[in-house]
Amino acid sequence: MTPDHRAAPEDTPASEAPANAPASVDPAVLRQVDDLFRERIERGTAPSSVWGVFDADGLVASGGHGDRGDGRAPDADTVYRIASCTKSVTAATLLSLVAEGLVSLDAPVAEFVPAFAEVVLPTPDSPVPTLRMLLTMSAGFPTDDPWGDRQESISDDELDDVLRAGLLFDSVPGTAFAYSNLGYALLGRAVSVVAGRPFTEVASDVVLRPLGLDDTVFAEQDARGYVVTGVRPHQGDFEPLPLTGPGAFSPIGGLYSTVADLSRWARHLSSAFAPIRRPGTAAQDGPVSAADRRLMQQAMRHVPRTGLPGARRPVGYGFGLFVEQDDDHGVIASHSGGYPGFSAHMRWSVQDGLGVVAFENATQAKVSIAAETAHDLLLAATSGTTPPTPTVLPETRAAQAAVSRLLTAWDDDLADTICTPNVAMDVPYDRRRQALAAAVTQVGADLAASPVQERSNTPTHLRWWLPGTAGRLRVEIRLAPLAAGRVQTLTVTAEPTEQQA
Predict the structure, then answer these.
(1) What are the pLDDT digits (tens) for 124-160?
(2) Which residues contact 34 (CB under 8 A, 6 or more apart)?
(3) What are the backbone angles phi and psi of residue 13, rounded to the nearest 5°?
(4) Residues 6 or more apart whose Cβ sits within 8 Å of residue 277
(5) How many CB atoms lie within 10 A of CB 467?
(6) What is Dmax (Cα atoms) for the chain?
(7) Does the N terminus or the C terminus of the chain have fewer Cβ atoms within 10 A?
(8) Which pLDDT score, from 0 to 100, does residue 19 have?
């Protein structure tokens, strides 16, 4: 890793953070991240490995190891196939056409691909898959990575022949998740039909070029930087594989990109949440609205464990992105890419915009494993021992202050002003006063002290802890959906020291 985000000609460990690295990113953690990818090269996982760490403001650091093919280590401008990370661009391109009123997500795919009308559906009452079903991987098709990865260059006519020959279904369309490359190839055809020109042109002109993603292209000859050759393991060495060209399946994974460009794309998607995580800031402008970018990063379809083996968090699929739910860090958007000869991964925290991208040039290298580990290291380090101050509504903060006054000197009239009527109905005030006194005595709580920790699940929820001589006191509030910001849930719980051990 070097300060200008470019790797030196030889492997360079991430020994120090660049000048623009935020204080929250510990240089020691960046060195750990770099070690993860260096060790993969030492184990012979791939000939080359490159990574980048970004936050809401830009690329924080990057590093590369191995030989990209010309005797140099890869850097942030080295070009790799990003495979299925392409699907987020495909989804964004379609959403831009929807926003223009040119197409509906609930239109059946047969409107754009007439050959699909000849497909026999799995049941007599099955709906024809819609664009929305294709976007969310719920069209009922079987998972098809090995087959789909080899279809990129086929023509539209050849795809029509596939459809006319018939399809198998694992489920009734619209009822279950199954990762489908065929579905995204059909989406690309729909984009092409609606726009009246090839999908690759539409995606480039509508999404990539307006965002300045000039190193993200669909054809090797259009790349500006050094293009890495993909390989596969063979007899203790690596065997080079030919690069495929654009075709009917390019929407599933046809893009080439760089660490610098893909991290910029990820930041653009993530910026849709900027007004939420940084009140007063605005989302980046772009060809796809912030609202639609947020839509891409919502779990639209549950992904069962069998659909993403090895997943450590609950996962859903949005529009062109996997959406993971972390107990401590909230939503994490991600996508992997695997093509013959290449492995790619991108992921970021919606809550703070901190993310990782990584590429390697070997079949089934599964760089996603290292990228996820690196991201977990970053999230843990930036969290520290004290969780960040929750982002809650001003009304929630006002309610917290009012409840703090109430707990210090309980008054039923004040409680009626702060709380909705159900609070007194659920647990009468006299019982609440007695329970509060007992909890304060049990842990020796200081009701006038500042909270030692705070957590929040939503903007209208807040939990905080007050110190005590024998433990701490947990206070939790949840507001009703009323503009006045009144408390509908109020709980006070003693947490003795022995229970925290």
Answers:
(1) 999 999 999 999 999 999 999 999 999 999 999 999 9
(2) 1, 13, 14, 51, 63
(3) -65, 155
(4) 56, 350, 351, 352, 353, 391
(5) 16
(6) 81
(7) C
(8) 34
- 11-47: buried (b, 16+ CB within 10 Å) or exposed (e) per residue? bbebeebbeebeebbbeebbbbbbbbbbebbeeebbb
Cα 462 from Cα 117, distance rounded (Å): 52
415, 428 contact by CB (below 8 A):
no
Length of the chain as a residue count:
501
Average pLDDT over residues 353-380: 96
Amino acid, single-letter form, for residue 78: T
Q: Specify the 3-state DSSP secondary structure of 64.
A: strand
| The pair of three-digit structure tokens given for residue 126, joined into one six-digit string | 């099955």
| pLDDT tier at 376, thresholds 50, 70, 90 | very high
Which of 456, 492, 457, 488 is closest to 475 using CA atoms? Answer: 492
pLDDT for the residue numbered 16: 36
SS3 assignment, position 469 = coil
Cα–Cα distance, 430 to 256 (Å, whole number) = 67
Enumerate residues 6+ apart whose C-beta is below 8 A from 28.
none
Cα(66)–Cα(81) distance, rounded to whole angstroms?
Answer: 17
pLDDT at 456 over 50: yes
One-letter amino acid identity for 395? Answer: E
- Say how far apart CA 361 and CA 82 lie, in whole Å: 10
The end-to-end CA distance of the chain, in Å, is 40
User: How far is residue 495 from each of residues 314, 433, 444, 455, 470, measured CA to CA in Å?
Assistant: 29, 18, 10, 16, 9
What's the DSSP call for residue 334?
E
- Report residue 227 as tokens: 């293009």
